Structures are given as C-alpha cells and as structure tokens.
Amino acid sequence: MTPENVGHNKAKDALIKKLAHDFLNPTLLDEALHHSSMAGRSNERLEFLGDRVLGLVISEALMTKYPEADEGELAKRLGVLVSRHSCSQIAQQYNMAAPLIRDEHNENIMLSDNVMANLCEAIIAALYLDGGLEVASSFILKAWTPMLDDMTNVPTNPKSDLQEYASREGLGAPSYKLIDKTGPDHAPIITVEVSLDNGLRLSAKAGSKKKAEIEAARSLLEKLLTGIVETS
C-alpha cells in the first residue's frame, strides 16, 4: 500500500468517526468521495439526491422551530441554510475534503465552495442510502443545529440586497448572465455571472440558475462591503 493510500484511508476513517455511522455498504461513501474530475464514477448523482434529502430535513426542522412562520419566511431561512456557502462550511468543519479523490494534476480542480458543497451533499446521500432517513437526519440536525440556533432574524434576499446597495451607491443595476452549464442533466453545474454597469462582476456555481444567481449576488455584495472587487 502506497503512502497516499495510507493517508487516504486514515482520513476516511476519521471522517467515518465524525459522521458517527458505520457503513454497511462502504462503496457508497467511496462514491461520495469521488470528484467528477476522476474517470469512471463520480459523486454527482449522490449530490443530486443529497440536496433533496438536506432540503427535506431542514424544511421539517424549520417548521418545527417556527410554527407561526409563513411560507415566505420559511423559504428565506431554508435558502440560507441549504446554500452552497452553508454546505461548504459544514464540509470544512468535518474535514470532508481530506479523503476526497480528485485529479491532483488538474489545476482547475480547487476546493471551492461549490466542490465542498457538492461533497457534503453527496455524503448526506450516502448516509441516506446506507442507513435511511433517520441516519441522514441525525447527521444533518447535529451539523446544522448551530446555524439554526444562530439564525435569530429572518434572512433577506441577496439579490434584493445587492440591487438596493447598488442603487444607493450609484453602481448601476445588477445584471445576471448564464456563463456555463456542465455536468449531466440530472446534476448540472450552472455558472452565472452578476455584473454592474460600472464593471464590477463576480461569478458563482450552483445546481440551478436561480441558486447560482443568489450565490453570485451574495458573494458580490460581500466583496462590495469589504472593498474587495474585480472589474472588467
């Protein structure tokens, strides 16, 4: 066994311990840990399923936590909790990328929010397929409870916030453009760029055009507020 394999196995064992689930079918976790840059199997199909499982569990948790909230408030809270950024944060907290199998020689493969979020959702799907909704739900609620508890106020809409900020600062109206669409139809990766009339721009990736627009708006607004921006 090579040093690389030893390191991978140790990282995977550490992840399994953090997930608190012994897989009856270890190949499910192996599939979740295969990035799409690798030939053969990848975690894209699992990411597709994990996104839905995560949405279901968090939706139920929100309805329980906020019994008086209407659909609009629940949707705003859900959007933040299942966003690329939130999933990426969980992946980082659990060090999910340590055993990730990817093409180390491809400079385009980076541990971006999108890659990390896909990995997190793929692992959720592996938990679901191996142990059922109870196992997946147990992990999701444990991992996401701090975020749920910290969300005291109703989140705002990143696209609306960006539009209001840009209008107030005289930066022009945000414009959204579809840049790229890759991956299979069942698990697409959509890249959208948001730009302002004065040349400020930023792109983001997600599993749908709507989600990509929200992520792009959120990221550009953060950069505007911190003074770190790109111009064309």
TrEMBL record:
Mg(2+) binds at residues 47, 118, 121. Coiled coil: none annotated. GO terms for cellular component: cytoplasm. It catalyses: Endonucleolytic cleavage to 5'-phosphomonoester. GO terms for molecular function: double-stranded RNA binding; metal ion binding; methyltransferase activity; ribonuclease III activity; rRNA binding. It holds the Pfam family Ribonucleas_3_3. SMART domains: DSRM, RIBOc. Its EC number is 3.1.26.3. It is found in: Cytoplasm. GO terms for biological process: methylation; mRNA processing; regulation of gene expression; rRNA processing; tRNA processing. Residues 157-226 form the DRBM domain. The keyword Methyltransferase applies. It is an enzyme of class 3 (hydrolase). InterPro entries: dsRBD_dom, RNase_III, RNase_III_dom, RNase_III_sf. Signal peptide: none annotated. The keyword Phosphoprotein does not apply. Keywords: Cytoplasm, Endonuclease, Hydrolase, Magnesium, Metal-binding, Methyltransferase, mRNA processing, Nuclease, RNA-binding, rRNA processing, rRNA-binding, Transferase, tRNA processing. Its cofactor is Mg(2+). It comes from the Bacteria. Homodimer. PANTHER family: RIBONUCLEASE 3, RIBONUCLEASE III. Belongs to the ribonuclease III family. This is Ribonuclease 3. The gene is rnc.
